[in-house]
Amino acid sequence: MIDVSTLAFIPGTSAGPLDPQWVEHTQRLVGHAFDPEYLAFMGRQNGGPLRRRYLPVNGNVKVVERFLCLVDPRANPAEAIYDVGAVWSLIGARIGPSRVPFAVLFPGDFLCFDHGRPGPPSVVWWKHEARPGATSEPIPVAPSFTALLDALRLESEVARPGVGA
User: Fold this and answer.
1) Which of 51, 78, 101, 127 has the fewest CB atoms within 10 Å, measured from its CB?
2) CATH number of 4-156
3) Residue of higher predicted confidence among 108 and 165
4) Domains of the chain: which residue ranges?
């Protein structure tokens, strides 16, 4: 697994230590167990924005605004709007039953775990522009959470069309 320190999270942005009871509550809520690699990652940095946030996808570059956190809103109301379960409660019907959001993309899309197949979930990009009452087909991003982390880049590592080589 990638060293979390190389992702360059903005200091002081973690939502605090993971509460195992809240993790269990969230897994029951979303109907899926979290990937152990994801939980290990969250144990080091419970959500937040990072500097290594540029994600090449199908010839484009998406910006990961922040990773969602796992927090009980009663214990941490300031971070509650970024809680995986809270976000899933808002968009779960639109993303489909096999998907769980875990990161926010600019401008309002989400990276989600896709539990549609046996084994560890893949990572997909869900576009928020799906019409109400309909699910949109997600775009595959990475075969696993660790592959996603390996794909993240700093701004200086991203080639921009028409700028430099």
Assistant:
1) 78
2) 3.40.1580.10
3) 108
4) 4-156
Cβ proximity of 127 and 58 under 8 Å: no
AA identity, residue 127: K
Poorest-pLDDT segment among 7-16, 19-28, 99-108, 145-154: 7-16
Find the mean pLDDT for residues 29-56: 93
Region 12-23 average pLDDT: 92
